[in-house]
Every structure is written in C-alpha cells, then in structure tokens.
Amino acid sequence: MQIATMTIDEIRVGIREQKFTAQEVVKALFQRIKKVEPEIGGYITLCEEDALQQAIIVDEKIKAGEKLGKLAGVPVAVKDNICTDGIRTTCASKMLEDFIPPYDATVVKKLKAEDAIIIGKTNMDEFAMGSSNENSAFKIVKNPWDTKRVPGGSSGGSAAVVAAGMAPLSLGSDTGGSIRQPAAFCGVVGLKPTYGLVSRFGLIAFASSLDQIGPLTRTVKDCALSLEVLQGNDPMDGTSVKEVKTKSYLDGLEEGVKGYKIGIPKGFLQKGLNEEIAKAIEDSIEKFKELGAIVEEIDLPITDAELSAYYIISSAEASSNLARFDGVRYGYRTEDFQKLDELMEKTRTEAFGGEVKRRIMLGTYALSSGYYDAYYNKAQKLREKIRQQYQEIFKTYDLIITPTTPSLPFLCGEKVNDPMEMYLGDIYTININLAKLPALSMPCGFSKEGLPIGIQLIGGEYTEDKILKAAFALEEELKLSTIIPEGKEEI
Amino acid sequence: MKINVEEVQHIAKLAKLRFTNEEAEKMAKEFDSILGHFQSMEEVPLEDTKTSSKEEIKTVLRKDEAVIFEDKAKLFRNVKQMRDGYIQVPKIIE
Q1: How much helix, strand and coil, in percent to the nearest 5, is found in chain B?
Q2: CB contact, 8 Å: A275 with chain B?
Q3: Would you call A79 a catalytic residue per the annotation?
Q4: Which of the four pLDDT bands, split at 50, 70 and 90, describes residue A484?
Q5: I want to staple A445 with a disulfide (CB 3.0 to 4.6 A). Which of A161, A280, A474, B10 is the partner?
C-alpha cells in the first residue's frame, strides 16, 4: 500500500470495497510517520494506540455490514489548538504543555461521527501566531520539499504532514493566512472557509472575529469532501451560520469554469512579488481563459494599510483572549510568588514565547487609553471598507485570483529577527479574513529550485462550491497535486 | 522613537507581563518599525466609513439551556490541586 501518496478518496473507497482494512491503513501510516517524522517535526503528539483501536472499530463495522461514515477509516491530523478529548492540546506553548481538554471541538466530533481516525496533533506557531512555524515552543517544522526551509505558518505542521505523506487530511486554523500560506509553501490544498461556515467551538481562540478552521489535503476533491463533513451550524458557536443550507461540495465539482467571471487585481504584480510566482499565476490565468472563463482586471488595491488594520485587530483580540492564561485555574503556573499580580506576571512571562508577548503588547497598546481611536477604531473602519469593496466586486465577479504569498518558502532563521518583515509576507491573505470571505490555496507550479508555488482563489460569502469547481478544473489541467517531495516516495 | 522604554514598561504592566530593561529596549525598537508601518492607515480616507453595522449580522443567540456534562472527572483533569472535592487555587484576594 502506497499510503504516502494516497488520497482521502482512495483510502475510503479502498476500505469500503475491502481492498484493504482500516487497520492496515493506520499501520502503514505509522510506519511512514516513524520514517519521515524525525526529519520533519510536524507532530507534537501521536496517538498510535488510540488510532489502532478506532481502526478496529471501523473494520468491525464493515464485517458486520453496518452503515459507514463518509470518512470511515481515514486518518486525520489535527492542529494542536483544536481541542481533543483526552489528547493533550498544547497550542505549541509552554502555557498549555500539559493541558488535556475534557471535550472534543465540534469539528473533531464531526470527524469522529463520520468514522475518521484521529492520528495525532500537529505542530504550529505558538497560539497560531506566526508565518514560519519557528514560534513553536517545542520544535520547528521543516518544509518537506527542502528541509532547510520553513513550511510556513501558523498551521505549518498540518501542511507539512500532508505534503510528506504522513496524513491524507489535516485540520488547520486560519486567522490571517495560517492555512493558505503553509499550504502554498508545502504544495498542498488548503481552504479557509467563510467566517461562520465551520464551527469554532473548541478552537483555542487567537482573534475570534478572524479565526476559522479548515482542511488541508492533497487534492481539491479531498478538500470538498472534508468541507462537507466539517461545515454547518453549531449551537455552541454563536457566530456559526444559521441560514445557509448544507451543501454537497462534491455534486457538480467537475462542472468547470465556463462562463465564470474572474477578477484579477491590477496591483497584484506589485513590487515585491517573486518573479517565478508571478509567472506561475499568469500561466494559471491563461489556463482559466482556455477553460472558458472570462478574465478581467479589477480595481482592488492590496495595500500596506490593510496589513496594518489586520495586525491591530488581531493583536487587540489576542491580548484580550490570552488574558485568561493567568496561572490560577489551569495551564502553567509559576513556582514562587507572594501576591496575585506576581503570580500572573511571572506565569505569563515564563510561559509565553516572544512572538505571543509581542502581539499581546501590541494589542494592549492599540487598545490603551489615548491610542484607541488612532489605531483600533481606524482599523475597524478600514476593515468595513475592505468588506464593502469585496462585496461590490462579488456582485459582478465569481472569483478573484491572486498569489497566496509574495515569496517562495524562505530559509529557517531568515526572517526570525525581523517581525515586520515576517508580517509583510501575509499581504495577500489577511484581507480575506478581514472581509470574512472564503479562499483556497492550491499548488500551481514549481520554482526552478523545485519549491511549490500557491495560487489563491477567493470567492464571495458562502461560495465555496464555486471556488472548489474552479480549483478542480485548474488541478485537472495542471496535474500537479500528487507529486510529493523527492526521496520520500517509498516506505 | 515613537515609544520609549517607560511606555513599554507601562504597557507590560497592563498586559501582566515583565520585561527587563534590555528586553523593553528591544521591543521599543521593534514597535518603532511596526507603528511606523501603521501610519499607512493615515493615507486612506475613512471619514465616511462606519464600523460594521449591526443589521448585517445574521447570527442569533440560542436559548441558554443547562446540559449535563456526563463525565465529571474529566472536568478536573487539568486541576492542579483538589481539597475535599473542591478545586484549590492560589489566594487571589489580598
């Protein structure tokens, strides 16, 4: 069994048709993990025994002829900021190093209800803050395409384990690009759904008005299949969607893009965009034209002001959300303290990493007396303006296309000492969170050095079906998605 | 400098964090570059833009209904100390 290159669809069909068992799938996958993981560092926790137990249950269901869930026997890796009942959930932070949630996040419940098998928790930037995965308190993740390079972040582990054939499906979270940017860097498909389509219950909050959970997979079809399972209203998440009917994203996936109106922001080829990325995006745009889409330039400036608004709002929300970690009830607690302030200050100072502290400080500053109007209020206004801009465009257009990232995967350590330089890498992804829209990143080519390039397909609210149809059509044209890093093909 | 060490220390106090003066100096420098970048917002005319309007939001509150949490032991999984069936926390009132 070539588990490393298998898609979700191949695994679930194979198990259903009894070509192999769920136990064989899990065993083969853990063999693969044992071989590759030491080099990649994509997992924080592995649950081999639990996974095997789950596989036995699936196999028994098949023997007994019971009804199977949509993802029966499919191994899933879950980002370590998504709560899993009985499995340590650390947020890659010393603060939650020993935290074992008493409940499953809604998305985890949904996966289990469809007989998926949780195999482990993936590495990430601490509390999902970062774009390189170098902010994990435990270990860095390496890009499977070139282990000297970063896998992107903050869902770097989730992207790397899919790219390296250590899971056919992983969950990530995306606050400003944290699913799409690592998907682009690792050459996999990553979707940030519309804000509200997927429940956030059980996702440890970074910036609640921007956070959204989504899948990372090897193919667009796998992405569609996973979204079908993950989506839907949840009474436990007050911001989850109420009125949108549950869609089947597999229905009509092959319909193509004939007649689609696609907008290309005039400014996207601005200075700073890597030439090889620009070329790959232009080639993909040509493909869409050949497939019958109508492509037009649109007026949609992608500016530094938007990036500022994003960092102000996300940091402000983070400073508030992370106030709960005070050493009183759970999580890390400092050893020596006399008074309450000392307990909190020492606990937080000892257990949070540098980037988390920087964001808390930035957020506290932006919300503090005298600066609120200059920063937070202005950022909120800008956010509304951005949202209106996109709404206007999606009255006429079906999709917007941009690169996912301005640069190729960079070297480990290259940007770690310059936070502003790191933040600038999020220029194409942050707007989408501010506007609450869905967007997908998929591989659209490779650089001369063999590094993956990601293209971003953006849609209007709740038009994931359109995005997936277009992505599927492009994938069929490009035939890139099953290629995995050299030297890692054989178990 | 847009922000000095004393201001960094004041914000740290509000955020319940501690920094050595050396760390605070480094953070002041980093803030300088980040806050400098935030100036870019000044170039966007926003006088006519309101912050997001309430009627756009479609979500509604659910009924607040009590649900029994079946496995009580799980709730105490992350507790550091228990005493007589209660969770013991550090003294928080002076």
Answers
A1: 45, 5, 50
A2: no
A3: yes
A4: low
A5: A280
Is A178 labeled as catalytic in the residue annotation? Answer: yes
Residue A377, exposed/middle/buried by CB under 10 A (0-12, 13-18, 19+)? Answer: middle
Assess A240–B contact: CB distance below 8 Å, yes or no. yes
A3-255+459-478 topology per CATH: Amidase signature (AS) enzymes (3.90.1300)
Q: Using an 8 Å CB-CB cutoff, list chain B residues near A340.
A: 90-94
Domain ranges of chain A: 3-255+459-478, 304-380
Chain B within 8 Å of A13 (Cβ-Cβ)? no
Beta-bridge partners for A295: A262
Check residue A491 and give its pLDDT: 38
The Cα B36–Cα B39 span in angstroms is 5
B91 chain-A contacts, CB cut-off 8 A: 340
- Round to whole Å and give the CA distance between A211 and A398: 24
Reported as a single tens digit per residue, the pLDDT across A189-205 is 999 999 999 999 999 99
- Architecture per CATH, B5-42: Orthogonal Bundle (1.10)
- Rg of chain B on CA atoms, in Å: 23
> Residue A42: enclosing H or E segment and its boundaries?
none
Which value does ipTM take for this structure? 0.91
Is the CB of residue B54 less than 8 Å from the CB of residue A382?
A: no
